[in-house]
Design goal:
Blueprint (H helix, E strand, L loop, with lengths): L1 H60 L1 E6 L4 E11 L2 E3 L5 E4 L9 E5 L18 E6 L4 E12 L14 E8 L5 E9 L2
Parallel strand pairs: 2-4, 5-8
Antiparallel strand pairs: 1-2, 1-6, 2-3, 4-5, 6-7, 7-9, 8-9
């Protein structure tokens, strides 16, 4: 009778390390899953923070005012966009075409009504004159006028992106607003 007890003890002693190893493997597998899941969340969280940081930086670089010395005007700048075939335009200042580049980063497009107190005196701006765009963070970007021209409304190439930092400023002109008066300026370092 002594021998059956020994065999049960031997089985128990053999089962103990096997159960311990199995338990450790399961705990390791669970821990690995938790670590992997948290790393995926960290990556997503980091991406979200990066996107939010970029949005904040973009908002800080958005134009808030434009100073046109030749017109003695400091105009507020609001967001502008196209809705259908209609350009949404500020009634109290000028509009920044939000699909164009931020100031200092390509072709920044700003437009407004051809009325007194807004861009009614844009014709006073000539080649060589300076324009100043103030951004939300309080910085300003200085531009020098390189071109002024009148174009047909269908000539939308003025909206194209550019490699160099430019400012495209325009308003309606001509009989019954049949044309557009455009000022193109390049950033001065």
């Amino acid at each position: 009778m002594a021998s059956p007890k020994r065999s049960k003890k031997k089985q128990k002693s053999l089962n103990f390390p096997l159960k311990l190893i199995t338990s450790l493997l399961l705990i390791s597998a669970g821990a690995s899953i938790l670590v992997f899941s948290s790393l995926r969340n960290v990556d997503w969280h980091t991406k979200s923070i990066t996107q939010n940081t970029q949005t904040v930086q973009d908002n800080l670089q958005k134009p808030t005012r434009i100073y046109i010395p030749q017109m003695s005007e400091i105009l507020p700048v609001s967001d502008g966009y196209v809705s259908g075939d209609h350009w949404v335009t500020s009634q109290t200042g000028v509009s920044y075409y939000t699909d164009s580049a931020l100031p200092g980063n390509g072709n920044t497009v700003i437009y407004g009504h051809n009325i007194a107190g807004i861009l009614g005196g844009l014709w006073k701006v000539h080649e060589g004159d300076y324009l100043y765009v103030v951004t939300h963070d309080g910085n300003y970007i200085k531009y020098q006028v390189s071109q002024r021209k009148e174009i047909d409304p269908s000539e939308v190439d003025i909206l194209n992106s550019t490699k160099e930092s430019t400012l495209t400023l325009y308003t309606c002109s001509g009989f019954l607003d049949s044309a557009r008066f455009v000022i193109i300026a390049t950033k001065v370092s």
